[in-house]
Amino acid sequence: MKKHFAALAVLLSLTTSAAWATPCDTVKEQIDAKIKAKGVKAYSLDVVAAADVKEQKVVGSCEAGARKIVYKRN
Question: Cβ distance 39 to 17 under 8 Å?
Answer without folding.
Answer: no
